[in-house]
Structures are given as C-alpha cells and as structure tokens.
Amino acid sequence: MEVALQPSLFDSLGPADPPAGLPDSRADLGVRSGAGDEPCAPALGPLGSTVERVTLSGGAWVDVRPGWVSGSAEMFTRLVERVPWEEERRVMYDRVVAVPRLLSWYGEHDAWPDPLLARARDALNEHYAADERERFVSAGMCFYRDGRDGVAWHGDRIGRSRREDVMVGIVSFGAPRALLLRPVGGGASLRYTLGHGDLLVMGGACQRTWEHSVPKTARAVGPRISVQLRPRGVA
Ligand SMILES: O=C(O)CCC(=O)C(=O)O
Ligand SMILES: [Fe+2]
C-alpha cells in the first residue's frame, strides 16, 4: 500500500516550476515560455523554516523542501553536459547486466561540475549545523533517462551508515520521479515526487530502518538527475 503523503512536490509552486499550462514535456526539455523566454539562472532558495520535517518510525526522519533550486532546468542541462556519465555493469546471477541509470561520483577533493552544487552542500551544512563528521562532502549522481531507469529497494548502507545514523541529502533536477520509502520488515510506503529543484533529506536511522527506491515506470516520464550529498565514510 502506498500513502500519498505529498502527491507531488512539483505541485507546490516555487520559482523553479514552469509556468502554468506549459505541458510537462516542454518544461522537461528546459523550454520556458513567458517572461522573455530566458532560461532562469539556477539559484538556491532559503532553507530554515521552509524545510518540513516528517518523523518516521524506527528513529528515521525525512526533511522536504520543494523547489529549493530555482532555474533547475538550466542546472539539469549543465549536469547532462558536464558530468562524465557512466553506464555501469553488474553481475546478476549468471549474467552481466547494465545498471538501469547512468552514474557518476564526486568526492570532497574533486572539482564539482557546477558551483551551485558546492553552494548547496555548504547551505545544507549550515542549515544542519553539522559537526565535522556529519558534514556533507560527496556528491553521487544518478541520471534516470526515462521510465526504464530506476533503483531497486535499498538503504545506503555502504560504510558507517550500516551502524550509525547519517544524513543523505537529495537534490533533484529535471522531470519528477517517484521516490518511495518503506520500513524495513514491511509497512506502508511513502511516496515523494521529486524533480525541478526539490530537496529531500533522509536522516536519523533512515538508511538502516527504512529502504528507498525509484521504481521503473511504464508511464511516459522525462529524464531526471538526482544528486545525493553524503558525509564522509558513507556511500
Ligand atoms: O534517485 C534518487 O534520488 C535516489 C538515488 C539513490 O537512492 C541512491 O543512489 O542511493
Ligand atoms: Fe539510495
């Protein structure tokens, strides 16, 4: 069973959203009408009280901030062009299969593909007043080209998140896709629809007591890029 806690973060209008009446497919291509047809420069909105906390069972929580990055269509285009996207292959049973999404990863000593992402990392570190160990330092990137791309149920449990509470922040660009969360061991799923500059932060025990996924879909969906900010020692 799914509980539509937040039917679509995209529905709550922020500056990153396309003008009303513009078909999604055009918006997803970064085409903007009205206001001079200029693509809007990417910018971060405030955090503070615009961040809404949802307390989950098992010591987990989720923070959501719809439309945190305005001009997200431009960011999407930049990331498509600048990130060295790779198709990974993994052994599954007796076959080698392509991972159904493109991936890239930036560590704390790498040059990140756009200064806005480093500013987003800094703004989150300031918002959470995180001590050194909990500061976001790396950026994992996933590119979901269409509904055939997705990520199966998992917790981000590589590294110390296997034992410790950690925060994982996700900033989404491009077309919205559903991110589902469900408690380990069963229970209703929560559904967040993330794209167009939305922010979602998983925290507390979320990586251990909950799982998340981006399900594949037969619906016609546009491409989405997810940037996952993580602290040291967590992948
Ligand atoms: O697409 C997303 O926002 C989630 C990606 C994810 O869960 C992961 O890469 O660990
Ligand atoms: Fe994950």
UniProtKB/TrEMBL annotation:
GO terms for MF: dioxygenase activity
Domain of life: Bacteria
InterPro entries the UniProt entry points to: AlkB-like (IPR027450), AlkB-like_sf (IPR037151), ALKBH3 (IPR032854), Oxoglu/Fe-dep_dioxygenase_dom (IPR005123)
Gene3D superfamilies assigned: Alpha-ketoglutarate-dependent dioxygenase AlkB-like
Alphabetical keyword list: Dioxygenase, Oxidoreductase
The Fe2OG dioxygenase domain, residue ranges: 135-233
Region (Disordered): 1-38
Protein name, as recorded: Alpha-ketoglutarate-dependent dioxygenase AlkB
Source organism (scientific name): Aquipuribacter hungaricus
Organism lineage string: Bacteria, Bacillati, Actinomycetota, Actinomycetes, Micrococcales
